[in-house]
UniProtKB/TrEMBL annotation, chain A:
<dbReference type="InterPro" id="IPR012678">
    <property type="entry name" value="Ribosomal_uL23/eL15/eS24_sf"/>
</dbReference>
<keyword id="KW-0694">RNA-binding</keyword>
<comment type="subunit">
    <text>Part of the 50S ribosomal subunit. Contacts protein L29, and trigger factor when it is bound to the ribosome.</text>
</comment>
<protein>
    <recommendedName>
        <fullName>Large ribosomal subunit protein uL23</fullName>
    </recommendedName>
</protein>
<dbReference type="InterPro" id="IPR001014">
    <property type="entry name" value="Ribosomal_uL23_CS"/>
</dbReference>
<comment type="function">
    <text>One of the early assembly proteins it binds 23S rRNA. One of the proteins that surrounds the polypeptide exit tunnel on the outside of the ribosome. Forms the main docking site for trigger factor binding to the ribosome.</text>
</comment>
<keyword id="KW-0699">rRNA-binding</keyword>
<dbReference type="GO" id="GO:0005840">
    <property type="term" value="C:ribosome"/>
</dbReference>
<keyword id="KW-0689">Ribosomal protein</keyword>
Automatic annotation (TrEMBL), chain B:
<dbReference type="InterPro" id="IPR008881">
    <property type="entry name" value="Trigger_fac_ribosome-bd_bac"/>
</dbReference>
<keyword id="KW-0131">Cell cycle</keyword>
<dbReference type="Pfam" id="PF00254">
    <property type="entry name" value="FKBP_C"/>
</dbReference>
<dbReference type="InterPro" id="IPR037041">
    <property type="entry name" value="Trigger_fac_C_sf"/>
</dbReference>
<keyword id="KW-0413">Isomerase</keyword>
<comment type="similarity">
    <text>Belongs to the FKBP-type PPIase family. Tig subfamily.</text>
</comment>
<dbReference type="GO" id="GO:0051301">
    <property type="term" value="P:cell division"/>
</dbReference>
<protein>
    <recommendedName>
        <fullName>Trigger factor</fullName>
        <ecNumber>5.2.1.8</ecNumber>
    </recommendedName>
</protein>
<dbReference type="GO" id="GO:0006457">
    <property type="term" value="P:protein folding"/>
</dbReference>
Length: 98, 444
């Protein structure tokens, strides 16, 4: 499957933290994805962009914090993260970015 | 790491060093592991960044360092094993220019080894030590000049006029265009006429005044006066003369001695004698040193590294050229070709330099920290008000430290040699010593 422009709208960027490095030991890669993207879309996008076989997608929404700016209440944006487990034998080099 | 010899003729040496990719990689990993606990990266706690990421991020930078280090290490190891000492910084070049990560590194190194320096047979060298006793005449002369410097000013009679060399005590107020300016007024100012302390013309006009006189001194500030607002302007100084004093040489007695910190005249004389003799000793030492160096120059001969001689000859030619053409300030002129004479001089210098260094090393002559600090202090005194900066400059500048250390080291080595060679004392007069010193200066 080849990469299409809309794939880039779904998968925003890889997330590189201690936690995700731990997940990568179990063959999972973590991405920040569009808030309205669903699991099938994410699967298709990752397979298309990186040319890998995806086994499963788990998603989670991290709610943005409520912050006060110059006395006014505001809210940081919510972020959807996708834990993409790859089929065995597939890898993604996350550090190179999208 | 592999070292193979490619050239070995005379003092010239050429080697090629190969460092395998695996060795280099191990070095990089080692370096990264060492740095890892201190690295902070977003998304990770300090020191928890995984190795793979570190390598990706910092690898190329560390690689250069590692390469440098392993080449340096290989070189120093080679020098240690072969016992060679390079005369100058070895010329190091990478031979495989199209190098990329994962390849073996090949480096070609060429240098000139320092020659083996033969031991010096000190028993063959005989030196004359010139001893000069301080003469009474010289002491008296020194005393007289001290007395002159310590002149007092004594009030003249009320009616007598001030002469050149007199001191006048004055109040003055300077005006430009009828307005007083800053720094142009003082009271009870002691001014020695003819001392050139004030702007030209001021002191001359005060010659002939008496105590109690008032005088308007008209002068023009010189064009290059320090204060731009005043330069080139005409000014009038209202001067009131309070006293006129004449200089009077201090008498050579205990009073004078006390002024210079000695207990009485005898003590002062002793001090002067000591100082004079120290001066003579210094002069005779440099004559003796010259003798020693001449003797050494004849006594030993060995092959000299041509690059050192060439550099030294170039340096000599350059300095001499600058002395002959003092109007050229910069160093951006054409290179000066050293003549045969320069080369001969350079050979002597290089040979003696190498010999002294070798002897010093064998005899374990070292310059102690205290001596070093002392020398730095002496130099710092040449820059009054900036001693601190000078100190810091020296501290941060190993080359400068080297420069200060070199003469110290040389002196100590020469001292060491003086102990080894036979010296005979010979008493001569002060004039003879002076002649010897002058002859020495002519030679160089």
């Amino acid at each position: 499957m080849s990469a299409k422009t809309e794939h880039y709208d779904v998968v925003r960027k890889p997330i590189i933290t201690e936690k995700t490095t731990m997940a990568s030991e179990n063959g999972a890669v973590v991405f920040e994805v569009a808030i309205d993207a669903n699991k099938p879309q994410i699967k298709e996008a990752v397979e298309g962009l990186f040319g890998v076989k995806v086994k499963a997608v788990n998603t989670t929404i991290t709610k943005g914090k409520v912050k006060r700016f110059r006395g006014q209440l505001g809210k940081r944006k919510d972020v959807k993260k996708a834990y993409v487990t790859l089929e065995e034998g597939n890898t993604i080099d996350v550090t190179t970015g999208l | 790491m592999q070292v193979t010899e490619t050239q070995n003729e005379g003092l010239k040496r050429g080697y090629s060093i190969t460092i395998t990719a695996a060795e280099l990689d191990a070095k990089v990993n080692e370096k990264l592991a060492e740095a890892a606990p201190g690295i902070e990266m977003k998304g990770f706690r300090k020191g928890k960044v995984p190795m793979a990421l570190l390598k990706k991020q910092y690898g190329p930078r560390v690689l250069g360092e590692a390469m440098q280090e392993s080449v340096d290490g290989a070189m120093s190891k080679h020098f240690e094993e072969s016992g060679d000492r390079p005369a100058m910084q070895p010329d190091v070049k990478m031979t495989n220019e199209a190098w990329k990560e994962g390849d073996d590194v090949e480096v070609a190194m060429t240098y000139e080894a320092l020659p083996a320096i033969p031991d010096v047979d000190y028993s063959k060298i005989k030196l004359e030590k010139l001893v000069v006793k301080a003469e009474t005449a010289a002491i008296d002369e020194a005393l007289a000049s001290l007395a002159e410097n310590a002149q007092n000013f004594v009030d003249r009679k009320k009616t007598s006029k001030a002469k050149d060399g007199d001191q006048v005590v004055i109040d003055f107020l300077g005006k430009v265009d009828g307005e007083a300016f800053e720094g142009g007024a003082a009271e009870d100012f002691p001014l020695v006429l003819g001392s050139g302390q004030f702007i030209p013309g001021f002191e001359e006009q005060l010659v002939g005044v008496k105590a109690g006189d008032e005088k308007a001194v008209e002068v023009t500030f010189p064009e290059e006066y320090g204060n731009a607002g005043l330069a080139g302007k005409a000014a009038v100084f209202d001067v009131t003369v309070k006293a006129v004093k004449e200089p009077k040489a201090a008498e050579i007695d205990d009073e004078l001695a006390k002024k210079f910190g000695a207990e009485d005249l005898e003590a002062l004389k002793a001090q002067i004698t000591e100082r004079l003799e120290a001066e003579y000793a210094g002069a005779s030492r440099s004559v003796m040193k010259r003798g020693l160096l001449d003797a050494l120059d004849k006594a030993v001969s060995f092959e000299l590294p041509p690059s050192l001689v060439e550099a030294e000859a170039g340096q000599i030619a350059h300095t001499l050229w600058h002395e002959e053409n003092p109007d050229v300030q910069g160093h951006d002129h054409d290179t000066i070709e050293p003549t045969d004479e320069h080369k001969k001089l350079a050979e002597r210098r290089v040979r003696l330099g190498l010999l002294l260094a070798e002897v010093g090393q064998k005899a374990e002559v070292e310059v102690s920290d205290a001596e070093m600090t002392q020398a730095v202090m002496n130099q710092a005194r040449q820059y009054p008000g900036q001693e601190r900066q000078f100190f810091e400059f020296v501290q941060q500048n190993p080359q400068m430290r080297q420069q200060i250390q070199a003469p110290l080291f040389e002196d100590k080595v020469v001292d060491h040699m003086f102990e080894q060679v036979k010296t005979t004392e010979k008493e001569i007069s002060k004039d003879d010593l002076q002649k010897a010193v002058e002859a020495l200066e002519d030679d160089v």
